Amino acid sequence: MLIYILRRLPQTILVIFGVTLITFIALQIGGDPTYLFVSERASAEEIELTRIKLGFDRPLYIQYFSYLFKIMRLDFGDSLYFRQPAMDVILETLPATIELTLFAMFIAIFGAIPFGIFAAIKRGTWIDGALMAVAMLGQSIPSFWLGIMSIIYLSLPISWLPISGHVPFLMPIFQGNFIEGIKNFPTTCLYLILPGFAVAFYSLSRNARLIRSSMLEVLSQDYVRTARAKGLSEYAVVINHAMRNAWLPVVTIIGLEFGFMLSGVVVVEVIFAWPGLGRLVFDSISHRDIPLVQASVIVIALIVIILNLIVDLVYAKLDPRIKLS
Amino acid sequence: MNNNALKKNELIDNFNNKKSSKYINFFKSLFSYKWAVVSIIWLIIIINTAIFANIISPHDPNRNNIMERVAPPLAQDKQGNIKYLIGSDGLGRDSFTRLLYGARVSLIVGFASVFVGGFIGISLGMIAGYYGKLTDDVIMRLADIQLAFPFILLAILFLVVLGEGLINLILVLGIGQWVTYARIARAQTISQKEKEYVEAAKALGESHTSIIFGSILPNILAPLIVIASFNVASVILAEASLSFLGLGVPHNIPTWGAMLAESRDHIFAKRWWLPFFPGMAILITVLAFNIIGDWLRDYLDPRLKEVE
Hints:
The complex is a heterodimer.
Chain A: H1 2-28, H2 34-37, H3 44-54, H4 60-72, H5 86-110, H6 112-121, H7 126-138, H8 143-155, H9 170-174, H10 178-219, H11 222-229, H12 234-246, H13 248-271, H14 277-287, H15 290-318, H16 321-324
Helix pairs in contact in A: 1-4, 1-15, 5-10, 5-13, 6-7, 6-10, 7-10, 8-10, 8-13, 10-12, 10-13, 11-12, 13-14, 13-15, 14-15
Chain B: H1 3-16, H2 18-32, H3 34-51, H4 53-56, E1 75-76, E2 82-84, H5 95-131, H6 133-148, H7 151-162, H8 166-175, H9 178-192, H10 196-203, H11 208-244, H12 256-263, H13 273-300
Antiparallel strand pairs in B: 1-2
Helix pairs in contact in B: 1-2, 3-5, 3-13, 5-6, 5-8, 5-9, 5-11, 6-9, 7-8, 9-11, 10-11, 11-12, 11-13, 12-13
């Protein structure tokens, strides 16, 4: 296991290096980045001053390394609009996004397992066909459209279903106020239902298809036949024997899935007025607060990279065959 | 017809004319998968609407009319003729016309960026697979780095800096998907390069470029076409998300994503038609590409059938 970690770690560091390089290049690609930091009416001297103040007059490689060292100290620059460190602004919105993403992950994984297994057991019947048709549809629906339509047809008619907004659960907990956090939890979940489903539906559908096909593969293996031959009930065969291996492929994509969901979260947060990182990015676009957009992208990328590392390690633990390869 | 007779017919077909039997098989497979036929018909319709949008609808997609804003679908004028087929938006612009013009952006971006991404990805993937060693390592590490980004966010960052424009959008969405093609092209190239026909080409003294793109490429195209079809679907979704966020093409060009963004102001007034139609347009078009992708996968490469 240690060897696996040691081999996996340099790869992660390389990826972090590349990710910072790309976000750095992104800022340079449109020409002199100074113009992104000054107003349109700025005079030539003002522009020159800003350029020197922000260090854009230095050679590119020096700029990159100073950027890299700043990131290592978790300094992601200052937001132009909020006039405070980007990290502070991001930390304020991050808990809400984590809540939404975790909730959506939960639906996408634990909703997909029964969905996929049921379809696999009923292979070739109309039930399988209908479930897979829904899954196909789910992979084609824009999440934000699902959000809009669910507001119109679900939350406006159903009085107890909140239309938009957010009740914090993680934020009070991070601040050490456990009682308030736990007291908020049921309401938080209520507010999470619609945005959570809008974000999760795509992944739910993809996972269901994935679990179905891996379940079909597992069901045809020898050890499942042995279990049947021993006279175990079909329920025991499916739940105790087949399912354990059938959902492993889903574990491998959890890391990627998380990154993918964070992308979906950006647009869905805008619709449900969810005070998270996605909404922050959206607002920063309209404020043309580019340093904040850049900081948000790199923070999310770092989260995804670390999560992928953790997922890979967990997976290596779950499936001993990995270490050998 | 029983199976044996069918097989016999196929054999005779093969014997008589290999080429024409290929086409027959193609259509046989297509028509046995009826949703693929429906999808292709839908695509033909949508491509034609995109091309002939200005002929189909007599209206200007940007002409506003504040007096007739948010007209419901099938709204009539004083003579009782239908004026707004699917209603008008918050500025009184004809939604149907905007929907037709919106197809242009979705399809152009969908096809063009898949072309860009496919070109870069297939070239890099094949080079990585063919030469191996350091070249392979460098290209595949680049792929790892790209995969670490949640794609939409990277696109947002680049588009914010580059500014709006169709070309920028196509390039960003195209470059964003090269990894999928590269990985498959690499794996396929590795499995092909040991085969006799490659050895033969080498023995004949062909250049590496001509072996890679002349000999190997035609043999690995099938799975790449399948991926391309799925990617058109996901690019159309991504384009809609970006337009929804106000990034992408300039504001005077109607897009489905931008129509959905504008409809946000009318949710609470329950003006359902404003989000409903552009959303359905995206949904059906994306679904069509996904279904065609599924069918192509089964037809071109049956081994992939259960793998996902």
